[in-house]
Specification:
Layout: H1 22-32, H2 35-45, H3 47-56, H4 62-75
Length: 76
């Protein structure tokens, strides 16, 4: 199943545009996605875009934001 078609990630959205809704998609996958979703995210948007969204997100909970910021600090 393609990442954008997963009801577990986008249960509340009918139509989603990967370009227009990039920030929303990145935040949602960082909060609720699995490893395959994260790999898709990196392939689609690149590490720098994901890092930027993560660093400035007002949507990610504190624990998720801290995890991802630490991950990117060490691995990217």
């Amino acid at each position: 199943m393609k990442t954008l078609d997963k009801k577990s990630l986008f249960w509340d959205v009918r139509d989603i545009d990967p370009q227009k809704n990039a920030r929303f998609i990145i935040e949602r996958i960082l909060a609720f996605g699995d490893l395959d979703d994260f790999k898709w995210l990196v392939d689609r948007y690149g590490v720098e875009k994901i890092k930027d969204v993560c660093a400035h997100s007002k949507v990610l909970d504190r624990k998720s934001a801290s995890f991802w910021n630490n991950y990117f600090r060490r691995n990217a």
